[in-house]
Input
Amino acid sequence: MLTIGQLAAYAGVTVRAVRHYHQIGLLPEPERDASGYRRYGATAVVALIKIRTLADAGVPLSRIGTMLAAGATAFAATIDQIDRRLSEEIQRLETSRKQIAQLTSGDSAALPQEVVSYLGMLREIGASERMVEAERDGWILITARWPDRVRDWIPAKVAQLGDPRIVRLYRVLSDLLDSDPVDDRLAAEAADIMAALAEEADAAGEIAQPPEGEDELPFDLLDALADEADPRAQRLRDLMRERGWSGWNRSERVESPARSQPT
Output
């Protein structure tokens, strides 16, 4: 006959756990012997090992008593149900692990692999890390709004990197972001390139008006993101307007201040 300490040690649990199982009615509490101590027999050891095994497998204590009292068929059905639940939990944890692993690379957080690859290309053409970070945050906004369309847009963005003007623009913007105070020469060059690209796209009919009911919020957020990230964004916006264009995420032709002044 075993003391509570010997029982706990044999079954691989703590004395506190044994007492808890007594309190919740999971393990019957034996009568005290003549010395006033509780003594446990082999049946109690077997029962405790079963309880520990089920608990270690993730079975809630509230279900263990019913399972131990059930027949073989009911016990097997419950085990199968628990196994399915554990499989689902494992899947969820594996997904979480992949997401955590992605966070080790800032580019991978919340972005599909195609966008991550594109950001890598920006580094290869000479874009600064600050420029890439700004681009990444913009893609996070876009991906959140149009998760199913982003992959369709990336090939066109990759193709643009074959245009020397686009490459130069990213390099100029990178240098501009690192300039303090604002380098007006770089800002003017960036505005010239963007205005020229907008003129070319407009002539080719590639600046389409948004469909009726199109959500404008993502584009407003993109502009706001740029303004909040760096004061140079507003300077670029002013220079673009002087050249007859508003914005850069969705370009629109406007009357420039220089053109609107009376002669």
Q: What stands out?
A: The radius of gyration is 34 Å. The mean pLDDT is 85.
